[in-house]
């Protein structure tokens, strides 16, 4: 909590409340939702003087609701990835993948608007994004080796499965001060993104996704609270519902006419056998569709506090942990069960994914895994090191005033 002026009374330490963790990197979405601080009650004192007492800010339930519903889409999407031979599953898969990660990235960018290297934010970037990336990149590689019986390969330069988002978020956050000073940041980011798909950049740091999805992060940086207020209006909810139904219908039509790998945002145009003009047009259409679907989805998010609002603060736990469940089902052959590859089986898998996603955001899981996702690591940091003064300048400032030679004194005056 910050203050514009120093309070007259000694501020009380902020007490955490259930679900109040920075696990949204969002983490998913990476910062605590904007909030307002209600005026504190006047404290009775001698002579009736009132001493304002600072109170903690309350999280905006709208964004926590959005993040929780979005993480459920992620878990469901990863579950449907193994059922693409079912037409309903493939249509839902394309529909979800068209906007679920852009949604997270836009929200993350919105809460990164004030990100700088000051105020301990750089440390938080390391502990809440960098360290979890190293931990889960290693954990998933070991898991793949032990359960999947593959060769052991741990590479921090080639993100495994879903850890790419942490890698990308680390670079996006570092670039925030740059985008905040460019006159047309969204246009510049979009040009970089389109150019990145015109050649093969390799798999290091999943660089195609880092650059390709950058416009969504920059878009979030450009948004203001008023933009979200527009989406909270009743008429926006009606329009949003119509748009989502239209998007689902479009996904049904596209399922047999579109290579679903487009929605991964990770391959150059040459991968799809198209020229750069066609590929660029496809990317622009995908950007437009994703932005429209993100806005439509947000218009349907509840504005008030619900039973799942508190879970929206811990979506990073569900994001990083649910992969162990989906990978286990893959390694053990469960995804090959015939009953799953039916329409009822598809909806049963989706229901199970919703339960798993909700559980992984719960308090017991957070308490058990906070050491990996939100490590304190105060021992690893020191005060900010500043450049030392030059020897001559240091000696001059260290010398007593009476021993210093007056400025401009060269030869003695006559």
From TrEMBL:
The keyword Transferase applies. Pfam families: Acyl_transf_3. Residues 61-356 form the Acyltransferase domain. The keyword Cell membrane does not apply. Signal peptide: none annotated. Residues 1-56, 393-414 are annotated as: Disordered. Residues 1-12, 22-32 have a biased composition (Low complexity). The chain crosses the membrane at residues 62-80, 92-113, 125-142, 154-172, 184-201, 207-224, 236-254, 281-300, 307-325, 345-366. Keywords: Acyltransferase, Membrane, Transferase, Transmembrane, Transmembrane helix. GO terms for molecular function: acyltransferase activity, transferring groups other than amino-acyl groups. This is Acyltransferase family protein. It comes from Actinomadura rayongensis. The lineage of its organism: Bacteria, Bacillati, Actinomycetota, Actinomycetes, Streptosporangiales.
């Amino acid at each position: 909590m910050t203050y514009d002026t120093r309070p007259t009374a000694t501020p009380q330490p902020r007490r955490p409340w259930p679900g109040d963790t920075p696990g949204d990197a969002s983490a998913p979405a990476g910062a605590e939702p904007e909030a307002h601080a209600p005026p504190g009650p006047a404290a009775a004192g001698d002579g009736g003087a009132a001493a304002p007492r600072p109170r903690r800010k309350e999280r905006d339930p709208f964004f926590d609701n959005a993040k929780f519903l979005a993480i459920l889409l992620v878990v469901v999407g990863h579950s449907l990835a193994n059922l693409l031979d079912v037409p309903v599953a493939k249509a839902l898969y394309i529909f979800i993948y068209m906007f679920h990660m852009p949604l997270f990235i836009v929200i993350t960018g919105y809460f990164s608007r004030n990100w700088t290297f000051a105020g301990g934010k750089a440390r938080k970037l390391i502990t809440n994004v960098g360290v979890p990336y190293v931990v889960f990149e290693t954990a998933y590689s070991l898991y793949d080796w032990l359960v999947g019986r593959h060769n052991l390969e741990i590479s921090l330069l080639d993100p495994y499965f879903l850890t790419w988002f942490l890698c990308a978020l680390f670079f996006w956050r570092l670039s925030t001060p740059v985008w905040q000073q460019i006159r047309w940041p969204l246009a510049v980011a979009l040009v970089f993104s389109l150019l990145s798909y015109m050649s093969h950049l390799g798999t290091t740091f999943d660089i195609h996704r880092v650059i390709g999805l950058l416009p969504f992060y920059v878009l979030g940086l450009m948004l203001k609270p008023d933009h979200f207020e527009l989406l909270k209006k009743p008429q926006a909810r009606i329009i949003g519902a119509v748009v989502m139904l239209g998007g689902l219908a479009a996904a049904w039509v596209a399922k047999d006419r579109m290579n679903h790998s487009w929605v991964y945002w990770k391959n150059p145009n040459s991968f799809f056998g198209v020229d750069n003009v066609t590929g660029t047009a496809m990317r622009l259409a995908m950007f437009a569709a994703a932005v429209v679907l993100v806005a439509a989805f947000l218009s349907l998010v509840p504005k008030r506090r619900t039973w799942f609002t508190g879970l929206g603060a811990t979506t990073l736990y569900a994001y990083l942990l649910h992969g162990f469940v989906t990978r286990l089902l893959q390694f053990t052959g469960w995804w090959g069960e015939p009953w799953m590859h039916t329409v009822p089986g598809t909806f049963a898998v989706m229901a199970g994914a919703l339960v798993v996603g909700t559980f992984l955001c719960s308090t017991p899981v957070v308490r058990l895994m906070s050491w990996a996702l939100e490590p304190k690591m105060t021992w690893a940091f020191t005060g900010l090191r500043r450049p030392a003064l030059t020897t001559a300048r240091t000696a001059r400032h260290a010398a007593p005033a009476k021993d210093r030679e007056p400025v401009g004194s060269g030869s003695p005056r006559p």
